[in-house]
Design goal:
Helix content is about 80%, strand content about 0%. The protein is mostly helical and about 140 residues long. Helix 1 runs antiparallel to helix 2. The protein is rod-shaped and about 125 Å long. The relative contact order is 0.16.
């Protein structure tokens, strides 16, 4: 194995690890986004369930429901900003992952080219150092 081929193989291994790390980071960011979206949906469901019942309601209970509804709305608003930030983060991580994948594929192609060049060089080396073939049918005269 030539030095160039060893170097290319090492680069491919590094690029593969870089892609794996970037893919894991992108998956984590995506999972965080899904968890935040689930929390937002849960807050929405809780807020919708805070309606006052039919009939007579005490003023204190109505005020408590209104206060709770307002707090849930504020929590959803704050969570909305966090979700937007998480979406930006997911897009950024996915971009890094794609760039790492491109680099990995490029390194793999360079390794293939180096391997092919090494094979051609080895074939040329063998062709040059091949012992001469005996000629059939021609007798050499010795002096």
């Amino acid at each position: 194995m030539t030095a160039n081929l060893r170097q290319r193989a090492r680069i491919v291994r590094v690029r593969r690890v870089q892609h794996d790390l970037a893919a894991a980071a992108a998956a984590r960011a995506s999972a965080e986004l899904k968890a935040l979206e689930h929390s937002e949906e849960r807050l929405k469901q809780l807020r919708q369930g805070l309606g006052a019942d039919q009939g007579e309601v005490f003023g204190g209970a109505l005020a408590s429901l209104g206060e709770l509804a307002m707090r849930l709305d504020k929590a959803r608003e704050g969570l909305g900003r966090t979700i937007n930030g998480a979406r930006v983060q997911v897009a950024a991580r996915e971009g890094v992952r794609l760039a790492a994948r491109r680099d990995q594929e490029s390194a793999e192609k360079l390794e293939e080219k180096a391997a092919a060049a090494a094979r051609r060089a080895e074939e040329r080396k063998k062709a040059v150092h091949r012992p001469p073939r005996p000629r059939l049918g021609i007798k050499e005269e010795r002096p």
